[in-house]
Design brief:
- With 463 residues, the chain is α+β, with helices and mostly antiparallel strands.
- It has eight helices and 24 strands.
- A six-stranded antiparallel barrel has the order 6-15-18-17-16-19. Strands 7-14-12-9 form a four-stranded antiparallel β-sheet, with no helix packed on it. Strands 11-10-8-13 form a four-stranded antiparallel β-sheet.
- The longest helix is centred in the first third of the chain and has 42 residues.
Length: 463
Amino acid sequence: MKLSAKVAVPVAVILLASAGGGYYLWQRTDAGKGVKQGEKAAQGPVLYTCAMHPFIIKDKPGTCPICGMQLIKKVEGAQADAKEMAMLEHVSLSPSQQVMANVATVEAKTIPLTKEVNAVGIVQYDQSRQAKVTAWVAGRIDKLYVNTIGAYVSKGRPVAEVYSPDLVSAQQEYLLAMKSRDRFKDSPIASISQGGEGLVASARQRLLLMGVKEHQIAGLEKAGRPNIRLPIYTPLSGVVIEKIAVEGQYVNTGDPLFNIADLSTVWVDVEIYENEFSFIKLGQRVDIISQSWPGKTFSGRVSFVYPFLDPKTRTVKVRVQLPNPGLKLKPDMFVNASVKVPLGTAVAVPVAAVMDTGTRQVAWVEMKPGMFEPRDVKVGARVGDMLQVLSGVKAGEKVAASGGYLIDSEAQLKGTGGGHAGMPGMKMEEKGAPAPPAGHEGHTPSPPPQKKGDGMDMGDMKM
């Protein structure tokens, strides 16, 4: 019995020591867990969501069951870093979604661009090649050599003959002055001999003012008698576009007889819209096409830009001067004009790749296969189906050439706004996430964020 008592005492001491150490170890371990759980509870649970489908929320990383995109951490407001916020603006589409949405990408390329300005125009007379045939003296039209509109007249051939008593008197005075000069040219008195020359010069000048040509005066001197009828010549060769005179008509000095136009060169007044007016410069080549001559192209140059704009049509009139061989272009004929303006080398994308929201232009750029990012771009001139890009997209980047509006709609559903984002500063919580669709197991709603102090406190632990 004494031996058993001695053995029992040390065993009891060992058991008490073991019990105390175990309690101390349990207390430290459990307390540490409580602190960590309290800190984790204060920070809130780490949740993962899909950047494309924000209603997909899981408590561990993985892939989205809808699009297969890698899940990202669900962050709240200021807790999101720049990279995560940028990822929220991206839209990812699976291959099947791209086929269903008809999404096609094209590479932005640096190509030489030529702007083509197309407009309509009307053929006009060249006003610098028009003239009127008028009566130089009062009299009666005895003979007309041109009786129809459209007749061609030549500068060296007369168009009419006029009988004028004043003209006959002037010719007789010239003949008398010549006889007086010949009679007194040998006079020893210088004033008399020189006076004869003055009379001839004065009478000659009067004939010239009446429209008598030099060769007609020479014929008068040779014949020695006045011409009863005076031929009238046209100042230029061309087509008669207006006939006023008739035979037997009495006319006064300066009355018009014919209107002549030279159609070997014509004008084309082209109407250019105000948004394309800045591309037009003096001297540019203009190609003219008429429906009357299919397959035939007439070439001219911009000779004048009118200094005013038509408020009704919102166009600026541009004058094009061009040769008219064979008189194929007729005045008042409608034609189509084309001006090609080189713009140099620039980055270009299809027109359908840029969406105009009214306040900005947006293009969806493919960052990697299936992932698109909205990009603000600044565009220049439109060249056919291509659009000049001044900034926003670099050469070599791929943009969505079709299906951009569907991508933008997907961004709207996602809650990031897309190209039509009018509230870029809004958070997803302010827009409200749609309810998860039925039939998706494993999708748990996001619990409300826990405030600091809501976690388990050490003082609340009970043994």
